[in-house]
Design brief:
Its EC number is 4.3.2.1. The chain is 63% helix and 4% strand. The longest helix is centred in the C-terminal third of the chain and has 43 residues. The protein has a two-stranded antiparallel sheet. α2 runs antiparallel to α3. The protein has 3 domains: 81 residues, Fumarase C, Chain B, domain 1 (Orthogonal Bundle), CATH 1.10.275.10; 275 residues, Up-down Bundle (Fumarase C, Chain A, domain 2); 76 residues. By secondary structure, the protein is mainly α. It is elongated. The protein binds arginine. Arginine binds next to α5 and α11. The site of arginine has 10 residues, from α5 and α11.
Length: 499
């Protein structure tokens, strides 16, 4: 279309046609929000028609053109600075200048913010679903291994015996918080900036609530300047993902270590071999899960650095912020799914674990607790058991300096230590048979039945809680998905009433 002065009336190409064209364009990366943009366009056009800002027949033509653009796909879009410009051009190419009415009462600024939120909310729900899968895997392991005794570590050294169930539920609980953080972020992502236009609102009588409703957003971002400028929802999402990735990295590291020690056997599906050493079975997938913490914190750091110091209201820097969030959510969701599979298919070696559970005199704390329960101040009990450990170590190695790292103390060693430290026989305080029992890793676990402890009955209530938390989060996820689907159906129904 040519204007009175002979110029091209569609002036978007006046700028950005030069050598920086591809640097300026986000069209390729915007494939991620192609579907979101079509939804946002449709909701906006329906609202414009309902408000009488465009005619019903004009809306019908635009909506028909959008259907054609959808069928042709992102790959067929004309060149443009971004998907928003390219779709508008495609619509105008299809139906002529009336297509330009689509951009009435809006800007790419509120449009892009709406598209990112629209897409990210689905990605966050996928991330949530992945955490639920992993929680289910961990709860499954816990259910099977309530009585499988294993060594527990501090400083990577054998510390106290625990169970595989207790270990698995420790990660299940951490992941519950990761799920909660993602759902919490979702609540602030799922708000509509549409109607903010460039940042300063519009002279048209738009209905912001209506576009929000048609797009399944829970509410409107009120202040138009905030709506266009804010990307804290990206930083918050990446933050939640980075914390989740940190949880995953610890879980992966534990499993790498346990596999190395023969405590757990990873399924071949989650292992890899060496190109030169034919005997090798390596826990590569878990190493990659562990590494995803790098992707996630890179995403968060990329976002915070890009967003820092940006003035109000819109700056093109924002275009480069978005991909950080996509990379983080993709990496972390995939890592979570892989971790879920690795956990669900691993086999725990009960015999190896039982043999290792008592290593390093890991029952020492239980013996000290026993003495303390029979009246000795805990500090004195600690001293008796420390001396017993030392004497036992001397017996094995002959070196006074060596500590009981490998060898535990037996009842005789505790008796000797009691005589040495207390000047009284052990039996004055406690039946040596009880000491014998406290030295047994399985009995030691059973005796730690405080809330949250590893004793089977304490673990049973943790398992119950894991089950109900999982059910609650599954229904929270289903509710959110259902409300997005209902909105998509409503929008589709509105669109078909025009075309
Ligand atoms: N593609 C841009 C982005 O991702 C949106 C375009 C807004 N452009 C502008 N010059 N105001 O942020």
């Amino acid at each position: 279309m040519t204007g009175e002065d002979g110029s091209d009336v569609v002036r978007r190409d006046r700028f950005s046609g030069g050598p920086a064209r591809s640097f300026l364009s986000s069209l390729a990366a915007d494939e991620r929000i192609f579907a979101a943009d079509l939804a946002v366009d449709r909701a906006h056009v329906v609202m414009l028609a309902e408000r009488g800002i465009v005619g019903d027949d004009e809306a019908a033509r635009i909506l028909t053109a959008l259907n054609i653009v959808e069928v042709n796909g992102h790959g067929s879009l004309p060149d443009g600075e971004d998907v928003h410009a390219a779709i508008e051009t495609a619509v105008i190419d299809e139906i002529g200048p009336v297509g330009g009415k689509m951009h009435t009462a809006r800007s790419r600024n509120d449009e892009v913010a709406a598209c990112i939120r629209h897409r990210l909310r689905e990605d966050l729900l996928d991330a949530v679903e992945a955490t639920l899968l992993l929680r289910e895997s961990l709860a499954g392991v816990a259910e099977e291994h309530v009585e499988t005794v294993m060594p527990g570590f501090t400083h990577l050294q054998p510390a106290q015996p625990t169970t595989v169930a207790h270990w698995a539920l420790s990660y299940e609980q951490a992941l519950r918080r990761d799920t909660a953080r993602l759902l919490d972020a979702y609540g602030r992502v799922n708000r509509s900036p549409l109607g903010a236009a460039a940042f300063a609102g519009t002279t048209f009588d738009v209905d912001r609530e209506r576009t929000a409703e048609l797009l399944g957003f829970d509410e409107v971002v009120d202040n138009a300047m905030d709506a266009a400028a804010a990307r804290d929802f990206l930083a918050e999402s990446a933050g939640a993902l980075a914390v989740l990735a940190t949880t995953l990295s610890g879980l992966a590291e534990d499993l790498v270590l346990f596999a190395n020690r023969g405590y757990v056997d990873l399924s071949d599906d989650y292992s890899s071999t060496s190109s030169i050493m034919p005997q090798k079975k390596n826990p590569d997938t878990l190493e990659l899960v562990r590494a995803c913490a790098g992707d996630a914190s890179a995403g968060l750091d990329g976002l915070l650095t890009t967003l820092k110091g940006l003035p109000r209201a819109y700056n093109r820097d924002l275009q480069r912020a978005t991909p950080h969030a996509w990379r983080a959510v993709d990496a972390v969701t995939e890592a979570t799914e892989v971790a879920a599979g690795a956990v669900a298919t691993a086999t725990w070696s009960e015999a190896e674990l039982a043999a290792a559970a008592g290593e390093g005199f890991s029952t020492a704390t239980g013996v000290a607790d026993l003495l303390a329960r029979h009246g000795l101040p805990f500090r004195t009990a600690h001293e008796v058991v420390a001396v017993a450990a030392q004497r036992a170590a001397e017996r094995t190695s002959g070196s006074a300096a060596s500590h009981a790292a490998e060898q535990g103390a037996d009842v005789a060693a505790v008796e000797a230590a009691a005589a040495e430290v207390l000047d009284e026989p052990l039996s004055t305080y406690v039946d040596p048979a009880a000491v014998e029992a406290a030295l047994d890793p399985a009995r030691s676990v059973e005796s730690r039945d405080s809330v949250g402890g590893p004793a089977p009955e304490a673990v049973a209530s943790q398992l119950d809680a894991a089950g109900s938390a999982l059910a609650a989060d599954e229904s929270a996820l289903a509710d959110r998905r259902a409300s997005l689907e209902a909105a998509a159906d409503e929008l589709a129904a509105e669109v078909s009433s025009y075309v």
